[in-house]
Design goal:
single chain; alpha+beta; three-stranded antiparallel beta sheet; 12% strand; elongated
Length: 368
């Protein structure tokens, strides 16, 4: 199987001199590496840039990917499992999509299909699993929450690179993602106490970086990402779903850094201000903020015509406030939930929502 996958990758319709292929035989006691070498013995591949690595480390697939990142040279990392059979043009289409807007399209993945899906009961089940995963976990989560979930194979992603002996990356982080990763690391330290020190160290580094690169002290708020620097016109932009008071409390308890208290107070004040500006109590996806004021942005300021409305980002606000005991959080949450209990859906500009796509933005709230 690995020989077929190797040939399929090398035969893809993409400039051969632009592809570096790293083949990993991860803790394999069989003849996987030999099969790779047999495939590469084909005269057609003699000039190709291919390296076979017989790996004995820990970490399984995650360990392989981490090792590959350290030695890969390309601008993008493409990932294929040993049982994959990529189509001829897939890499071309993935790269073409990524290059449409490299600053926004950090990762691109293609559709996966099961070979011989109708061959037997097992292949039918595997095919059903893939279909459900793609349509619900990938497409569904994207349409509801604008959260992208990368699959395990058939995708490309921008890679970090080494500069002057240090790891570096392009400025393309998103604060909401960084907050959730930091919180997940905190929880991991509790779930796996034997590795608690490791996870706490990662959490500490990440939360320090959030404050270093995604914090605006003038507005007492987190910015939307490390790309929204003090020289950017987006430096005063706040994403309402980044208001995570329980996260901020946790990070303060871990670090005793007073800036987390400042962030919590500032962002809750801004959120309460935004909620008070509309009779429904709803808040917009994005807002311009100063030290003591906040106002919804206009359409197309960031990503869509609904940037200044309750939409794909703001629909997460009730979830982010639900466990907080802070009176400001509870007041804002109560106003929003009273509105949703009436099951009437309007935008912040008083236009009634009517399409399935728009009503879907409120469905997570009505199910709380």
């Amino acid at each position: 199987m690995i020989a077929q996958t190797t040939r399929a990758i090398l035969d893809m319709n993409y400039p051969a001199d632009r592809v570096e292929l790293l083949l990993y035989a991860d803790n394999c006691a069989d003849k996987t590496a030999d099969e790779m070498r047999r495939a590469l013995a084909d005269p057609r591949y003699r000039s190709r840039n291919v390296k076979i690595i017989e790996r004995t480390g820990s970490g399984a697939k995650a360990g392989v990917l981490n090792d590959a990142l350290k030695i890969a040279h390309g601008d993008y990392i493409g990932v294929y499992d040993a049982d994959a059979m990529p189509e001829t043009n897939v890499l071309y289409f993935l790269v073409r999509k990524a290059l449409e807007n490299p600053e926004r399209y950090v990762a691109v993945f293609g559709r996966n299909k099961t070979r011989y899906a109708q061959q037997n009961f097992l292949t039918k089940c595997i095919n059903q699993e893939i279909v459900v995963t793609q349509r619900i976990q990938h497409c569904g989560i994207w349409h509801l929450f604008r959260i992208g979930r990368i699959p395990g194979t058939n995708f490309i992603i921008q890679r970090q690179y080494q500069k002057n002996g240090h790891w570096a990356s392009d400025i393309n982080s998103a604060t909401d993602g960084d907050l959730f990763i930091a919180m997940a690391l905190h929880q991991a330290a509790r779930v796996w106490p034997k590795r608690a020190g490791y996870y706490r160290n990662l959490e500490r580094h990440l939360t320090n970086d959030i404050l270093a690169y995604e914090y605006n002290p003038h507005t007492r708020s987190l910015t939307v990402g490390d790309w929204a620097t003090s020289k950017s016109k987006y430096y005063r932009l706040m994403r309402t779903s980044d208001v995570a008071p329980t996260f901020f409390d946790t990070f303060y308890q871990s670090s005793h850094d007073q800036r987390w208290r400042i962030v919590k107070d500032g962002m809750l004040d801004h959120l309460a201000d935004l909620s008070a500006q509309h009779r429904t109590g709803l808040v917009p996806d994005f807002a311009w903020v100063t030290a003591d004021s906040a106002e919804p942005v206009k359409p197309w300021t960031v990503a869509s015509k609904n940037d200044g409305n309750y939409f794909a980002n703001a629909c997460r606000v009730p979830m982010m406030l639900a466990n907080s005991k802070d009176p400001r959080a509870q007041k804002t949450l109560t106003r929003m939930m009273k509105f949703f209990s009436r099951r009437s859906y309007v935008s912040l500009r008083n236009s009634r929502l009517h399409t399935d796509r728009e009503e879907a933005e409120s469905s997570p709230i009505s199910q709380l």
